[in-house]
Amino acid sequence: MTHALFLILLGLMAAVVVWFEWRSLAGARMKTVFLFMVIFSYALAIAITIKPGMPGPLQLWERAFDPLVSPWLPP
User: Fold this and answer.
1) How far apart are CA 72 and CA 62, in angstroms?
2) CB burial of residue 45 (10 Å; 0-12, 13-18, 19+)
3) CA-CA distance, 32 to 45, in Å (whole number)?
């Protein structure tokens, strides 16, 4: 129940941010990018709330670039 309440409040906060910022955005492209970022962030918050053991962006970064950087780093 607390997860659902948290996600509802987070959604309301995201809606308030969009409502306040919408008029200050110039052009359709800027509005599209802003909506995409808000929706993507909310979806990521939902995924992490439902499954907290899910790897985040930092683990992807480490897995992708560790083999490239590790030869340069001292042991």
Assistant:
1) 15
2) middle
3) 20
Q: pLDDT for 10-43, tens place per residue?
A: 999 999 999 999 999 999 999 999 999 999 888 8
In total, the chain counts a number of residues equal to: 75
Domain ranges of the chain: 2-69
Tokens 């053991």 belong to which residue? 53
Dmax (CA) of the chain: 53
Show Cβ contacts of residue 65 under 8 Å, excluding neighbours closer than 6 positions. none
Q: How many CA atoms lie within 13 A of 40 on its CB side?
A: 6
Q: Which percentage of the chain shows pLDDT scores above 70? A: 99
- Dihedral of CA 70/73/74/75: which sign? negative
Q: What is the pLDDT of residue 17?
A: 94
